[in-house]
Write a structure and sequence with these properties.
By secondary structure, this protein is mainly alpha-helical. It folds into three domains: 112 residues, Serine Threonine Protein Phosphatase 5, Tetratricopeptide repeat; 74 residues, no CATH class; 276 residues, Rossmann fold, CATH 3.40.50.300. Helix content is 53%, strand content 5%. Helix 8 runs parallel beside helix 10 and helix 14 crosses helix 15. The longest helix is centred in the C-terminal third of the chain and has 21 residues. It is globular.
Amino acid sequence: MNAARPPAAAPKRAVPDPAAALAGIDLALAAEPHDPTRHLQRAQCLLALHRVAEARAAAASAEQYARPDPAFWDALGGVLSFAGDQQRALVAYDRAVELAPDEPQLRFNRATVRRFLGDLEGAESDYDRVLALKPNDFEAYKNRADLRTQTAARNHVTELEAVLPRTGSDWRGRVHVEYALAKEYEDLGDYARSFAHLQAGARTRREHLRYDIGVDVATVQWIIEAFPAGPEFSAATAAAESPIFILGLPRSGTTLVERILASHSCVVSAGELNDFALSLVAAAGAGPGEPPLPRRELVARSARLDFAALGRDYLQRARGRVPGAQRFIDKMPLNYLYCGLIRRALPAAKIVHLHRQPMAAGYAMYKTLFRDGYPFSYELGEIARYYAAYRRLMDHWEATMPGMIHSLSYEALVADPAASTRSLMDFCDLDWEDAVSRFHLNPTASTTASAAQVRRPIYDTAVGQWRHYERELAPLREALVAAGVAPSELT
């Protein structure tokens, strides 16, 4: 889950009917095949239609006929980034910055892609320049703070404390600066100040969310009722491909495991895909032009689908992102909601569940400013209720589908990486390759909130980090116990 705003990809507004727009663009290109703007628009429509490989080809045509216009190169970089081609996106942003070196948005966009690609020093340099040009780009302060561990000799605390009052009525800007200060104070070991800023930022963010934790908790019960036990099925009637689903809560180690598996020569990561949820809604949801179904009805319908068709539709969507890959990873944490459906629709798929000590998991989510999703993560009591519901559902899946889910503890992975990784390889039917133990050298892009951390070898500092805040996190502990988590798990 990308914690930074993504590079700007035109169009600024969603295309209401991308298929119709694509047909019109193709007619225009037949008359003027060298028009770079039309090729770029074609790529945008193809992205909206989830035809990612074709979008990349259209972007290449746009690049071939491009003019020296920084706005065009910026939009091209956005398309390529959303299409998952971060290297070519960087080339486009380099060109945009070359043409307009003092435009802060171009620098911000390039910094985002540099972070994805692991060029953390280059990203920090770009953010420094953004803030010199536009001191009130408050998100840039937060992104810059996340790039490295701050030290007493090199940090931005004094600057951030001076910036905080300037946020004024800009609540979003205040949230970014509060989280930046929390991160930097934690790096410096000033845990009291760190938590004070974190709490202030989280409280402000929660105040501006429309969210009812009760609906998410109830959804778990509806899923359990709809999928009481694992089915009997014939693999011959369903898709035989074996994607690898890595799922669990955010900040539980899913990106780490993704990087390990994607370092294998036979495996490519497709990133965090919404494709399974999209396929489900397409199959079980309301028809075109009809209002969305209530969530409870959608869950009930999902248990009566043509599961083989669901699997084929998912693979068609996902395969467009990783053409030619022998095996691919879908690392959407929220797919934990669909384990029963995944098992029915894709019986050969591998499901890897990452889990973490409850207090550590709760704190890790609380301290993360997510760009989208996870609205429960800004209030400790809601984190506890969500965690308990998630655990209840995963216990249900593991009880009704024994042996079908590989449960992997983040703490066990950190304590004994070699043993955990070998067990993981065996479960995924992958031969051992030494590259998986050197995952931090993998040059491929990472677009999640952990993009900076996965460039490092496995480290154990995050395992007990929450213990610095045992007093401040007491409400989380109390709420977890009240929600049914055993006190012995919280020490």
